[in-house]
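anyone seen this seq b4? input:
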Amino acid sequence: MEVIAKLRNARVSAQKARLVANMVRGLPIEQAEALLEFSPKKAARFVKNVVKSAAANAEDRFSANKSELKISKILVDEGIKSKRVSPRAKGRANRIVKRSCHILVQVSD
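predicted toks r here
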């Protein structure tokens, strides 16, 4: 039994979210949640919510025990990029790119 949960357009870059995703890949759910709870990275909040959602989906749909679940797959892909402009001297402008990402977590027993 494999259950997935997705978060789309999380307001953190994919590169930074992958650092957090690599920490919890392959871990049991309870251990991953404990690790993410005390991580200082912003992306840890997003990944923790998706892991909790995937575990809740497994419990709801298949009556799975949370202590037996582990993260089988976690993917972080680039999302949309919001482009903004910052004014500079002499009428010029610099582009600011605000990146986002899509996070997919798959849990299995």
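DSSP finds three helices and three strands in the chain. The first helix runs from residue 14 to 24. kinda curious what u guys think
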